[in-house]
From TrEMBL:
It is found in: Membrane. It comes from Pelagibacterium flavum. The chain crosses the membrane at residues 6-27, 66-84, 116-139. Gene3D superfamilies: Membrane associated eicosanoid/glutathione metabolism-like domain (1.20.120.550). Pfam families: MAPEG (PF01124). InterPro entries: MAPEG-like_dom_sf (IPR023352), Membr-assoc_MAPEG (IPR001129). This is MAPEG family protein. The keyword Transmembrane helix applies.
């Protein structure tokens, strides 16, 4: 396995760890409220409205990890299959760093413009990754 591939896989692992960390944050913000009976289970069974702002921020940040990061994981798998190199490794890490920044903003200040900026960076990098995959696919078909 090349160093670039190893770094790509480490970026993917880091993205997964970020998602799990957000789940822990979410649990730490929600469980005490239910255990202390500050929030009734029946009130949150079908509606997230009753959760306080901090719990809702963590919930939104966690939910957001199942949007762009899903396309990232699929792209990484395809890129590695096609023989990903250093460009994909750099793109992978920039994407994951943008997601860390996005999540950190989401669970703290939730400043929408800053959060959106981090999202746009991640979206741009993800688009570049998918274009790199397309280039690799075209190159593969040219050699067949």
């Amino acid at each position: 396995m090349s160093l670039a591939t190893l770094l790509i896989l480490l970026a993917l692992w880091t993205q997964g760890a970020l998602t799990l960390a957000l789940l822990v944050i979410l649990g730490r913000r929600r469980l005490p409220l239910v255990m202390e009976k500050k929030i009734a289970v029946r009130d949150i069974a079908l509606d997230t409205g009753p959760w306080p702002e901090d719990a809702q921020k963590a919930s939104n940040a966690f939910d957001n990890q199942f949007q762009l990061p899903v396309l990232f994981a699929i792209g990484i798998a395809i890129a590695i299959y096609l023989g990903a190199g250093w460009p994909e490794a750099v793109l992978a890490w920039v994407f994951v760093l943008s997601r860390i920044v996005h999540a950190a903003i989401h669970v703290t200040t939730n400043h929408v413009y800053r959060r959106f900026s981090a999202y746009v960076v991640g979206f741009g990098v993800l688009t570049a990754l998918w274009i790199a995959i397309l280039v690799r696919l075209v190159l593969v078909f040219q050699t067949v």
